[in-house]
Amino acid sequence: VKLRIRERPLRVPGFRFAGVACGIKKSGRLDLALIHSEVPAAVAGVFTRNRVKAAPVVLAARHVRRGRARTVVINSGNANACTGAAGMRVALAACRHAGLALDVAPSDVVPCSTGKIGVLLPRARLLDGISAATRALSPDGLWRAAHAMRTTDAFPKVVSLQMRIAGRRVTLAGLAKGAGMIAPDVATLLVCVLTDAAVSAPALRRLLRPAVAASFNAITVDGDTSTNDAVLVLANGIAGNAPLVPESADGRRFAAALAAVMGELAEMVVADGEGATKRARIAVTGARSDAAARRVARAVAESQLVKTALYGADPNWGRIVCAAGYAGVPLRAERLSVRVGGVPVLRRGVPASPAIVRRAARAMRADRVPIVVDLGTGGRGSATITTSDLSSAYVRFNSAYST
Amino acid sequence: VKLRIRERPLRVPGFRFAGVACGIKKSGRLDLALIHSEVPAAVAGVFTRNRVKAAPVVLAARHVRRGRARTVVINSGNANACTGAAGMRVALAACRHAGLALDVAPSDVVPCSTGKIGVLLPRARLLDGISAATRALSPDGLWRAAHAMRTTDAFPKVVSLQMRIAGRRVTLAGLAKGAGMIAPDVATLLVCVLTDAAVSAPALRRLLRPAVAASFNAITVDGDTSTNDAVLVLANGIAGNAPLVPESADGRRFAAALAAVMGELAEMVVADGEGATKRARIAVTGARSDAAARRVARAVAESQLVKTALYGADPNWGRIVCAAGYAGVPLRAERLSVRVGGVPVLRRGVPASPAIVRRAARAMRADRVPIVVDLGTGGRGSATITTSDLSSAYVRFNSAYST
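^ Those are the sequences you sent over. The predicted structure of the assembly is below.
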């Protein structure tokens, strides 16, 4: 199975897409995406754990719980978060309006919003936008829909692949938006994966959890978990395969394909991290448990001092070890080993020579810097988190944004 | 009781001080501080909770546990952390060498180091420095000792006060260093408070805990807890007061004085936060418990998005509410109220008008920006954490530092 990161029109049988500008963004850029399945699709979703949930997230979770959807409405430029009862009425109106226009039940519509918090989503513009998007729906509109989801994203994120399931050709395509407010649990973003495979909603739920754990729950840009995160998968069954059994060989291949699409989208989100100039994959090994490894990986990945050292291509392993030390996991300094860009800068507590550290510094000038922290506990626990560097551009961007 | 932030020579009866340059810093700047009491002093200390503890921290904690000290040796420019058995031997040698020079037991010497992690502390320079500092000890050397503690600090941090205890005049003086790797539990730094009051070691321990909780455990610059944090209090009893009883009226006054000295030092550390252009005091009220309030305050204080908005004087309360939402504390968006610079930008979930938000933006241009988040749970839990903004200078500084 080969991933394709396509810019050319890509079709997912039975799905139509649109991206329009309806004036929610003052810039006049695309700000409303519509995704519609010709037939009812099975749906599963994962939503933000932030206690402050945007109105569309509350409503989307309620609709997705039923296991069936036809339509996804996504607006950018306004998060519809912290907007109280009025915000919920607008989100409901979006579902009803799309339902009327497309002749589906309002509960078959999944609403998503992303953008500024605390500003009421303009109802008339949103509904007019849905009408326009309904007219614009096209099997070739996927790329435009991905464009319309963007807020601070430098580029739209689309990944697809095709595979055979029991003799039938099946397509998976994923769209994502996200660049800031990215943290594990769930990385701050909207993700929508569409497939024409036949998969039941319960099977889709079982497949989604591990795929999210290995992708959007394993990246960080700024450690801020947003109010609006949503990851959706819709499967409309148009491919005509016998419903997929997750535990079968085909089920495992499909699971791997879903994980690959979501993993690549997650990597694209980190690559597009606000102000990011490079990515580091923090792998922690030799921990007593995967959970312990994950705590250490997250502490290292979110350390401002590690992230600025990454930006400066400085193999300052002391900052890495220091972050590991405050992760709340028992460890011993004299057992720690650290590799930066493949170069061993610390081996069981013994620092490398200056010549080796200089080699690590050269390796850190690359776009991607693998960092491996081995805790040396004798345990087999491991975890990986991908992070971006912290640059002057991040600060410039986020101190100038909004208001 | 009035705090004095003094630059002029200040004396604490019975204590002598020195600051010398011994070549640990390549720049030739002061890098070794010595503090010595003419008589045995009671001592109490709080040390980093980082699992990776520098050799001097391990040794200092062991010596302080005995409740008695005469001498504090502090070097800057090298943290003596992640230096294995060799690092421990250097820390022990420093205690023995200072003990011989000053005719005290090695266990009466408290060693502290701060600076780069993972580089062996040069033994000969350190010991020569201790010899030179011993010769330079003077009752007027406090300011010079504070200078010698600095690493990335823009200025030395010294606070003092005098008060009367049972008719006797008592002096408290505090020295601190710290600007980066500052997080609660304990804020990354070295702090030494000296007093001529007579206080037993157990009493000193009881007084120290709440003073640290309200000062160094309530600030953050970058959320990184260092390997070398140590807060020490030495009381040599030269004032001749009857030993202080913490529960007495004098005990409470002394506790308030200690808290004031440490609180002011903590504020100075945040003001000197790397790249900081301003400070925000994040107060969380209306929580179910103080612990819940503290979690929310810390999430807001450490949010990169809040800190960059602070730098940009942007009253983006959505980022504050979002951070509160992922603090892991139950809360409801429609009950939240937020004040920025005294201006109510959100009242029980209802956003303020643009005119009011503009007033908040003006208030954010000040050096100090109070931010109040009321959770509206009906509970009385509250907490305060002081944070600095995240500026382009922070990134520039920390991506260029070291190696």
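The mean pLDDT of chain A is 91. Chain A touches chain B through 68 residues (CB under 8 Å).

Shout if you want it in another format.
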